[in-house]
Fold this protein.
Amino acid sequence: MSSNGGMNEEDARRFHGQFMLGMTGFVAVAVVAHYLAWSWRPWF
Amino acid sequence: MHRVWIGLDPRQVLMGTFTFVAGTVLVLHIFAFGQFGWPKELKAKHNPPAVASAVR
């Protein structure tokens, strides 16, 4: 981490890995939720 | 791709992303429940039409 609290190249690489992991998890949960909602009540 | 984060504060990035996603998801769910007619059904369930004989 640089002096002004910003990320350097290595931090950014690690942060990006975690960020993408979190986003992928979020999308996976959303896909399951939409599948369940569709099987309960299709919306078109 | 990771270079976009260089120089940024990870806490601010995560808080900003979380706030944006939460707000968007809230608005989308309000719209989606409206599409399902959920508020309409709830209103009908709790406000049954008045019975004709009850009116003098």
